[in-house]
Known about the structure:
With 419 residues, the protein is α/β, with parallel strands linked by helices. The chain has 16 helices and 13 strands.
Amino acid sequence: xxxxxxxxNCGKTYSTDSVLYRCEDCDDLLDVIYDYGDLDPGSIKKEWxxxxxxxxxxxxxxxxxxxxxxTLGEGGTPLHECxxxxxxxxxxxxxxxxxxxxxxGSFKDRGMTVGINKALQLGMKVTACASTGxxxxxxxxxxSKAGLKCLVLIPSGKIASGKLAQAIAYGAQxxxxxxxxxxxxxxxxxxxxxxxxxxxxSVNPFRLEGQKTLAYEVFEQLGERxxxxxxxxxxNAGNISAIWKGFCELEIxxxxxxxxxxIGVQASGxxxxxxxxxxxxxxxxxxxxxxxxxTAIRIGSPVNWKRAKRAVKESHGTVTVVSDDEIIEAQxxxxxxxxxxxxPASASSLAGLKKLISNGEVASSxxxxxxxxxxxxxxxxxxxxxxxxxxxxxNTMEDIEATASDVLSDRVEVVVVHG
Length: 419
């Protein structure tokens, strides 16, 4: 399939064989553009039916087709029908896409397998990223698998312990930068301009191509139905735009006759895209000191804001804001209603859904999917801080039975989820 890189601002095009992240004329981001006329939708659909769901199942719609790709088995994540939680919220059809079961525990693995294979195709020897956690864990793992060196810059004191442990365990060179994520990203971009490092943050257009496969999976897992709404946590804003591109490609190929609304969710202490849309601004106004317990979306100057704005506008969606308290409550409800333990940033999608139900923007009859971006063990400290502690008891049956009396009495606690 013919392809090229195209600037999202001025439209200048480049070869996909270039190590390039931004337009040389206007310094804006690049998209991978395809000639979809080269594809036979019928043969693609036939191929899909014969393969289990994984990222590389969709290689015909990816920018490279290595015969033996570097992979850890990413993709194919479960789409859970959340009946108990859906009923509690008054929804007829509610699903959650659990990206936390990817190899390193987050959605980043989808993009990283494509990005790492592109690095190898380009002859790169060292990869690099700035990260709030999940990107560093994923890049470190896939670089290790590919035999590449890896450099990671993280914001000092702003990364969850589970994610930091992963990057260290996989053998990356990890450096803690005194500043926030945006400071770390600026630093790693300068390093990549100066040294032969392959940058795999979401400024890399090939990484986002892997992330769009989530849309293909949702479509297939729903029995070729199209969701009315897709809720996505928004930090650096690459994922919501990638998923939107995936749905658009399915429509271009004639697989779908409508498109979902894309609804981004940001934490109140790190919500520059939501603020821009609410105020009707053309450009983003960065949060210089972003703060939220949802570390994965604690980003004040998201590089993909233009892509996210485009996805929201084209899909007639929106970006909503939720508080940290709402995020923690949503995290608890996913765990206690559906057995899904996700990190706080993931739970923001449910918190956003509840908010839009309450204000009438999501109807009970609409088919809605929440993207759960990462596993709860990524950030175990949140549980120890915001949840009940274990109760210590004496080693006697009397004390154990007395303390557990509510559970042992078979009393059922009725829980109502308010929108």
